[in-house]
Structure formats: structure tokens, C-alpha cells
Amino acid sequence: MKTSSYSPHYVKLRAWLKERRTLSSLTLREVASMIGTHFTSVGKMEQERKKIELVEFVKYCQAMNADPHEGLEIIIQSIAEQKRTTKI
């Protein structure tokens, strides 16, 4: 199965990441500094211009005091929804 970092599953994950960052009142620069990357990498990740790497995702979540399991659950639910709609 070929997956894409631009799939609807990643769109939902990116929206969740951006929402969590906004709720945490953190800027792109602040998150980038916390995870040891350039702020443009964080921006590109949120804007579907960069693949979300697993370790980077966990660090991103930790910087915002967000549970990475929540983000993974979003992907799991999205995949389940897709399976249900394609069976109909």
C-alpha cells in the first residue's frame, strides 16, 4: 500500500498539530527552538510542504505538552473512517 504525506489522514494530523500549537500559545520559532530545528521546517510541516517524520512528531508534541498518542489516534480513526466509507 502506497501512502502519501498529503493524504487526508495527514491533513487531519497537521490540523491537530497546528491547533495544539496555537492553544499552547507557541510560535513556529518557539516550537522549532524546542525541537532543535529551523522554524521553516515546522511551518512547512504544518503547511503540507514537508513530510512528518515520527521522531520529529514526538518532539513536536512534547514541546507543546501534547500527548503523541492523541495525534496517532487521529490517524487511526481517519483510516477506520476511510475503510468504512469505501466498503459502502
TrEMBL record:
Residues 17-72 form the HTH cro/C1-type domain. SMART domains: HTH_XRE (SM00530). It comes from the Bacteria. InterPro entries: Cro/C1-type_HTH, Lambda_DNA-bd_dom_sf. This is Helix-turn-helix domain-containing protein.
